[in-house]
Amino acid sequence: MDLENKPHQTKNQGNQQKNVSVQETIRKPDTLFLYFCVMTGQLVTMAFGASMAWTSPVLGKLYSNNTDINPLGRPITSIEVSLLASMPTFTNILGMLVMPKISDIVGRKRYLLIAGVLTLFSGVGLGFSGASLVLMIVTRCLFSFSAGWVVFSLYLMEICEDHNRGKFGCYVGIFNQIGNFFGFVFGPFFSVKTFSFIITSPILIFVVIFTVMPESPVYLLKHGKEKECKKALRKLRSNKTEDEIELDLKKLKYSLQNEPKGKIADLFKKRENFLAVVLSFLPQLIKYSSGVTVIFTFLAPYFNEAGTSLSGDMVAILVAVVKVTSFVLASFIVERFGRRKLLILSSTGTAIPLFTAGVYFYLQSINSSLIAYLQWLPLTSLLFTVCFFGIGLGPVSQVMTSELPPAEIRAVSVSLVHSTGSFVAFAFTFLYPLISESLGTEWCVWWFSINCTVGSALIYFFLPETKGKSFVEIKEMLKNYSKLQIK
């Protein structure tokens, strides 16, 4: 009897997979509620982006001898700058290793609300840190420890569909850059205390509004809450019929079928899981090794060092506008051109202006007479760097990190990838002011350029395309990676 039923079972499984593929073709415009949910959650990302830009306008005040604008009452030292800029990145690593896994236990929505409250208190503490550099460092570390934006990226992937996952995934990068812009605009014109309160304000709005948002349908289904899952789907996809909602529910069930609870060990038990981690880490590694995030941290001091007639703070605002624009552009074209092509273009394009910026700083270090004719080069190089970074490495790397791992290891994988990427960012951020002071800025920038060039080659040869693929198809692709023709 078992032998007789086996072909029928196989046939039924094949029909089930066929039905799942059919439902993937059902596309309807994204609902206003989905947009509202995405935009509200992005306030966390925006606040995090503003906190990362905090150092650029604030360092100009902390370097000053004017006690009216410098709350420390004395100029800050190089080692203190390294600690103030890099320690939040280090605690972000610790947070990303632990916090996304906690969200698997308490739920994405509940965790995001808890993280929002913690971030709100740390932002207020930063405002009241006054003359205490230690308190500044501690409160900035708490601000980044919750890793709220990482958990939100998981939540975002789980409320989206295959056809809009790339677009909304890019929104994480967009709002991070809006946060940068927010920081660069307000930072130069307000005291350190007031500025700290301003960048924390989006979190207050988030905590109030996000309470009405649904839990992730994937999380609910994984925990056996099918009714709640269907209710969440109805909210997020209110323009679909009941039959279409039922098909979406079946698709989620199919993608989660026989998937065990994820553990660190699961990353290495299956070849496709290990590949998912390595391949999702590759764009993140190139992103942080490009040095763009480091340059943004020290943007005002970096540009002041270039010795042009333009103010570092004003250049920071201009660069932030260009960066936001390029991230928005990426969200419109990522589903048309694909993740892989944009990453290759972005990495190659970022390498070239970084190299030319290094040439400028080298000529400046040897007091070349050519500098008088090249005053336009630092800003031009910086704007092109930001443009190319913004159409790929910035937003699309985030999409790949949440898209490649299967559901059972997604939280664990995202934690590991982002924490490792943040460790790279921590190392670069800590070392940059020290190496720049000892060897010269040109060697730092040239190193970033080399990293982008090597990264472009690695993406070309090893990273597969995931555009338009369901999580099930991505998993199958990784299982057959050795037979895959990457092109």
TrEMBL record:
Q: Which residues form the Major facilitator superfamily (MFS) profile domain?
A: 33-467
Know the name of this protein?
Glucosinolate transporter
The entry's cellular-component GO terms read: plasma membrane
Q: What's the source species for this entry? A: Phyllotreta armoraciae
The compartments listed are: Cell membrane
What Pfam families does this protein's entry cite? Sugar_tr
Q: Which domain of life is it from?
A: Eukaryota
The residues that cross the membrane are: 32-56, 76-99, 111-131, 137-156, 168-189, 195-213, 274-303, 315-335, 342-363, 375-397, 409-433, 445-463
- Which keywords describe this protein according to UniProt? Cell membrane, Membrane, Sugar transport, Transmembrane, Transmembrane helix, Transport
Q: Note the InterPro entries from the entry.
A: MFS_dom (IPR020846), MFS_sugar_transport-like (IPR005828), MFS_trans_sf (IPR036259), MFS_Trehalose_Transporter (IPR050549), Sugar_transporter_CS (IPR005829)
Region: Disordered, residue numbers: 1-21
Biased composition, class Polar residues, residue ranges: 10-21
Q: Which Gene Ontology molecular-function terms are recorded? A: transmembrane transporter activity
Kindly give the membrane topology term recorded for this protein: Multi-pass membrane protein
